[in-house]
Amino acid sequence: MTENTIVQMTQDEFKEMLESVVEETVERKLIEILGEPDEGLEIRSEVRERLLRQREEVARGKRGRPLEDVVRELGLE
Questions:
Q1: Which of 26, 24, 27, 1 lies closest to 13, judged by CA?
Q2: CA 12 to CA 3: how far, in whole Å?
Q3: pLDDT band for position 16 (cuts 50, 70, 90)
Q4: What are the boundaries of each domain within the chain?
Q5: Around 41, how many Cα atoms within 13 Å sit in the side-chain half-sphere?
Q6: Are the C-beta atoms of residues 77 and 71 closer than 8 Å to each other?
Q7: pLDDT at 74
Q8: Are 9 and 17 in contact (CB under 8 A)?
Q9: Comparing 65 with 44, which gets the higher pLDDT?
Q10: Do residues 17 and 1 make contact, with C-beta atoms less than 8 angstroms apart?
């Protein structure tokens, strides 16, 4: 989104900005009240390796399968 003042925003841009602010605020407050849900949990080495590989692939521009294909394949339409 461009750096507009509220007056310059369309209704959709304002709604998107407001939703983002509310979502981030609620998430931050929940973590503050309840604590980090994953804190203290261990991640299996094979999961960690897979995540690192995926991060490297994304950094090189490789993307996964389109969501629409996965939804169709799983019959979730």
A1: 1
A2: 14
A3: very high
A4: 1-41, 42-77
A5: 8
A6: yes
A7: 92
A8: yes
A9: 44
A10: yes
- 8 A C-beta contact, residue 41 and residue 33: no
Rounded-to-integer distance, Cα 6 and Cα 74, Å: 42
Torsion over CA of 42, 39, 51 and 24, rounded to 10 degrees? 170
Gap between the Cα atoms of 45 and 16, Å rounded = 38
Cα–Cα distance for residue pair 13/3, rounded to 1 Å: 11
pLDDT of residue 27: 92
Q: Which two tokens stand for residue 6?
A: 């509220």
| Residue corresponding to tokens 């590989």 | 53
